[in-house]
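Appendix B. Extra example for self-study. Work through it before the problem class; the solution is given directly after the inputs so you can check yourself.
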Amino acid sequence: MSEVRVHNFTVSLDGYATGEGQSLESPFGHAGGRLMEWFFGTRTFREMHGEGGGTGVDERFACDWNADVGAEIMGRHKFGPQRGPWTDEQWQGWWGDNPPFHTPVFVLTHHPRPSIEMKGGTTFHFVDASPARALAMATEAADGRDVRIGGGPTTVRQFLAADLVDRMHIAVAPLFLGRGVRLWDGLEGLEQRFAIEPVTSPSGVTHLSFTRR
Amino acid sequence: MSEVRVHNFTVSLDGYATGEGQSLESPFGHAGGRLMEWFFGTRTFREMHGEGGGTGVDERFACDWNADVGAEIMGRHKFGPQRGPWTDEQWQGWWGDNPPFHTPVFVLTHHPRPSIEMKGGTTFHFVDASPARALAMATEAADGRDVRIGGGPTTVRQFLAADLVDRMHIAVAPLFLGRGVRLWDGLEGLEQRFAIEPVTSPSGVTHLSFTRR
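Solution. Structure tokens for the complete assembly:
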């Protein structure tokens, strides 16, 4: 049975998964890179950008993100900062020529545009679809492998609200962003659907593992 | 040097420290007793109500709450559910004839009323005062011992915003309350003022220790 998974998704202690004021230069707005600092230290991240990196508990969570994943679903603002109709289709997202996904990626947007085939196996598809419909497309594309819900917070929250997530790794970073987009709004009783296991890391992060009951 | 401390204050994973709909029968509103379940299992709690109770990490945090504390400051809704002018001064709060504080307790309210002397050394004083002014009164009453900020969330948040807290123990319970009163609103950058150490407990709670830098 293939699973729907969330990985390495990080929130501040006050619950924000991204800051205020997203722009081309600041994908996380005023949060900058602070939410993902624990991830930048892991071997999984370092190997995308050279070598080295830690192999402890942060890495044990980090390295799980892409194993057996056959497709990703992401919100439009994980692809780029644009709002409204696309004005520049030449720009191909924050993820570089060879994005780290290496699978089909379904970008949720009310403004569909032609798919973009990148190097390394990543193809961005732009779809205006409900969570359930997007998941059906991604599941078909994943061809028996799992589907990752890649974020951002609005997307993860929508899939949680629709009860479409099987397991989820959330890292809680010891930060107070104060403003931005919160992950947890409107999810009363989520603990009834998931077993939740917290574990702390020397990096200061608390990793939460959610497993569907 | 005496310290200003917060203890055993519990929030849900989505950041609520109390639920919606507080009433005489439901001090935590729709949250019921769920936030404090980790505490109900500790020896510190059990000894107030009989005997027994765990002695592990939950108890290590729980038992610290009253040592060297000479006064408490609490919000009005930790005393009782009334809003506006007091209509029944006969009712003496949720804490019974012999409240567990055994010190002066300053209850913040815009509606002062005469102090109430209870059994066991607890006296409730009702004061309409800013956090700084209330702290000055409590510090004097504590006579060299520490002052505890007892809650609820609005009170703790006000004292944090005014930078009047020296150390703080927050327990994060694996619950999603969805509604109620949040603790963390408007505290951007709090991590710059406090070292934050998380530790998990077998009860499922994550204990956060905040120590002023």
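Self-check: The first helix of chain B runs from residue 37 to 40. If your reasoning did not lead you there, revisit section 3.
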